[in-house]
Structures are given as C-alpha cells and as structure tokens.
Design a protein that fits this description.
270 residues; mainly alpha; 2 strands; globular
C-alpha cells in the first residue's frame, strides 16, 4: 500500500516503516492466539517441563522481535537501531517488564489473581513489592510481550482513525477512546485466560468482580501507555530516539503505578 493510500484510509501510519510493522503485528496476532489456544486445549501448559514451556514462550515472542528487524535489514533504507520495529519492541520490553515484575504483585494481592504453574519453575518478580506469596513464571514475560503487542497495535488503529476523523471534539474524546480500547482488551484477556481449561493453574478469586471492576483497574496500564505509544515514530520527519522510547515506556510504567495506587486506596482489594 502506498503512503498516499495509507493516509487516505486513515487506519495506518503515514510512516511507511511503522505502517509495515503495524500490519505485521496484526497479521501475527491470530497466530500467537492460535498457538496459546492449542497449548490450553491439549493441556500442555500442565504437562510440559519448565524447559518446554520456556521454549514455547520464546518461540511465541521471537517473531515479534525478529521479523521487523529482518525487514529493516532487508530493505536497507536505515540503520536497524533507527527502525520503528526496534523501538516498538524496546518500548514493549520495558513496559512489559514493569507489568510482570512489579504489576503482577498488585494483581496477586489486590485483584485476587492466582498462579499455580508448578511446572514453570523459573520465576522472576519483585522482592520488595507485594506480599511475596506468589511468584511470576518467566514465561509470562514472553507471553505478555505478544499480548501487549496486539493490544497496542489495535489501539494505534482506533486512536489514529479517531484523530483523523471529522468528529467534533475528537481530541477531547481521545482519552475516552483510550479507556474504551484498554478496558475492552483488559476484559477480554481476563475472560480468555481465566477459563475452565486453566482452572488449576490460573484463576481469579472473584471472577465476577474482576471482570466488572478489576478490568477497569487493569485498563489503567493502557490509559497510561496508549497515548505514548500512539505517537511513537508517527511522523516520518520526526522519529524518536532509543532514549526517548525508553523514557516514554518508563513514564508509562510510573504513571501506571500511580493509578494502581490510587485504585488500591479508593477501592481496596477486589
């Protein structure tokens, strides 16, 4: 698709590099979803060894990192470290690390999430935040990367389409749309993951309250992140640096922590 037609549709970025990566992210989304569904349907998440789980997690996440990088090197139009694919993955790695290392403790202690992956023995989580009663399997860092990739890519399309529309007050509606898309994905992930196929390994203590209220709290991740992500390399004339990308991801992480703290004070445990 040419740059002119991309602009005309209003869905994809005017930056050809970013538009290509967005399309790949969208095409890859049903692939990783199918892979996760097969693992759950066959019960492999309960029977595989830690090494097998880590291999599957890596195989699921690596295409998100490697395919955009391969495309940039193949095109040869810019150094690989200036490409949108590298910066998009850097952002997701930083923000996803926060979500697992720090944010999971909030999900355990406040939202009532329970992990029981006894065969996933390689773990990584905060020693200073949370009660420490549960651990975060390392596989979740890789899976979160692809989850967040899809959530952020689809948010880009919706928010860009809004900003390019002729809707009166569209800029004022921007945070509303951010919250709607974020809540939709938070609710969908909660419903999809906490299912009967994984009831022995993953569940919420109060599923009804988590879907209704906890999903809104989870959506604060995206309320903080989507606005930064939307403008990452959006203009081909003003690409972000790696430092700016990292700073944006860290800022989104800190904003998320503040909003989770406010929610914990206001609502308490779900």
């Amino acid at each position: 698709m040419s740059e002119a037609s991309t602009l005309a549709t209003g869905w994809f970025s005017p930056n050809p590099d970013k538009a290509w990566v967005e399309k790949f992210f969208l095409l890859y989304s049903p692939v990783w979803m199918a892979s996760m569904a097969i693992v759950m349907l066959t019960g492999k998440h309960s029977s595989w060894s830690d090494a097998a789980l880590l291999l599957h997690a890596a195989a699921t996440a690596l295409p998100v990192l490697l395919v955009p990088l391969w495309h940039t090197i193949k095109e040869g139009k810019q150094p690989w470290w200036r490409s949108y694919g590298v910066k998009a993955n850097l952002y997701l790695l930083v923000f996803g690390f926060f979500g697992n290392y720090i944010g999971s403790e909030y999900f355990f202690d406040v939202l009532g999430m329970v992990y029981r992956f006894e065969n996933a023995t390689t773990t990584l989580d905060s020693a200073m935040v949370g009660s420490g009663k549960q651990s975060v399997p390392l596989i979740m860092y890789a899976y979160t990367h692809v989850y967040f990739m899809t959530y952020h890519a689809t948010a880009n399309l919706v928010l860009r389409r809004l900003l390019r529309s002729k809707i009166p007050g569209r800029r004022a509606l921007f945070p509303v749309f951010v919250l709607i898309v974020g809540y939709a994905w938070a609710w969908a992930e909660t419903k999809a993951m906490a299912n009967p196929l994984m009831a022995e390994n993953f569940y919420y203590q109060h599923m009804d309250r988590m879907l209704a209220f906890g999903s809104a709290i989870y959506a604060t991740y995206f309320l903080a992140s989507f606005p930064f992500w939307t403008f990452l390399d959006e203009s081909p004339q003003r690409p972000w640096t790696l430092l700016e990308t990292t700073a944006a991801a860290l800022s989104a992480s800190m904003l998320t922590m503040y909003m989770l703290e406010i929610a914990a004070k206001a609502v308490g445990a779900i």
